[in-house]
Amino acid sequence: LIATITIAGCAGGSKVVRSEYAYGCPAGADKIYSKEDLIKAKVEPAGSLHNIEVVDLRCATRAGLLRIDVDLRNESREERRVAYRLRWLDKDGMRAWDDESWKPLLINGNTLYTVTASSPSQDATDFRVVIMDQDK
User: Fold this and answer.
1) Distance between CA atoms of residues 16 and 116, nearest Å
2) Which of 17, 49, 55, 118 is the most exposed place for a label (fewest CB within 10 A)?
3) Burial of 14: CB neighbours in 10 Å, binned 0-12, 13-18, 19+
């Protein structure tokens, strides 16, 4: 009984290490079974996105930095204006970098646009993509 309590007490203070990956991207504690689950875990819409859909997300590590590609599809015939920014997180899920400024995009009708970014430091081991509709 004492051994069980001691082990349980030591386990409670341990640090959570985020080492799980899905489709090349850090998954952390998220349960990722499909690309749709990955997109849902990593993309945060800032309001509603009309006719803009995130259709793919890819990650790779190069020279110790996390590189990501996000494919956005404009499903409308009209051009759409959106903006995005990345929220970089460290291995503990805390912000690893100051918030980036919004980056505007003009996506022509019925086209696919790929956003490519690299983490600002090796401390940034995870991310969230925040996307905002600017045509409201």
Assistant:
1) 29
2) 17
3) exposed
pLDDT per position as a tens digit, 52-80:
999 999 999 999 999 999 999 999 999 99
Q: Where are the beta strands (DSSP E) in 1-136?
A: 21-22, 25-26, 43-46, 52-62, 65-74, 80-89, 103-107, 112-118, 126-133
- What pTM does this model have? 0.80
Give residue 125's identity as a one-letter amino acid code: T
5: left (phi over 0), alpha (psi -120 to 50) or beta: alpha
Q: Is the dihedral of CA 102, 71, 64, 90 positive or negative?
A: positive
Residue with tokens 């890819």: 58
Sequence-distant (≥ 6) Cβ neighbours of residue 6 within 8 angstroms: none
Q: Using 50, 70 and 90 to split pLDDT, how confident is the model at 96?
A: confident
Please tell me the predicted confidence (pLDDT) of residue 29. Answer: 81
